[in-house]
Amino acid sequence: MRNLFRYILLVLSLVLATGQGHAGSRINDSAALADLKVGQAVFLIDIADAKKMNFYLEVIQGTFKGMRDQGVTPDFVMVYIGPSVQYLSTSPSADVEARYGAVLMEMESNVEKLAALGVRQEVCAVATDAFGIDNKTLLPELDLVGDGFISLIGYQAQGYHLVPVF
């Protein structure tokens, strides 16, 4: 039942992002995007559940494409902190692998797709240390940073807008 609910949410998100929701009318974000040329966002990813995290990786791709389709150049950065880092290794723990094996493969694919879109993805070294992740095993599309909070502060100081994803 939970998977059906998540599927329905994903379909609705994609429908809204592509503007196919109402016959004869185009759903868009024109009021929010008025005169905007570049949309700078820094996504704080702090999710303990692998399935939920994978869902949001797909939604962020839709957000990127939706913004682009509305004439705004997306400039996105994702910063993974906390328990989310345990799903970003080529050698996850035995427990993580046993619980989320198939989801981990989907997540790896979504990380690759985000990178192909030009989304910068950073992983907090404080979190990898706290969760016992060997930094050498991080997915190759990811950039290791010293402290995710510092990264978030820096991007916001550069004009990026914080999008917390929990």
Please tell me about this protein's structure.
It is a single chain. Strands 4-3-2-1-5 form a five-stranded parallel β-sheet, sandwiched between helices. It is built from six helices and five strands. The longest helix has 24 residues, at 94-117. It has a single domain (29-165), classed as Hypothetical Protein Ychn, Chain: A (3-Layer(aba) Sandwich), CATH 3.40.1260.10. Strand 1, helix 3 (50-69) and strand 2 form a beta-alpha-beta unit. By secondary structure, the protein is an alpha/beta fold. Helices cover 49% and strands 17% of the residues.
Provide a concise account of the structure shown.
InterPro entries: DsrEFH-like, Sulphur_relay_DsrE/F-like. The chain is of the alpha/beta class and 166 residues long. It has 6 helices and 5 strands; from the N terminus they run ααβαβαβαβαβ.
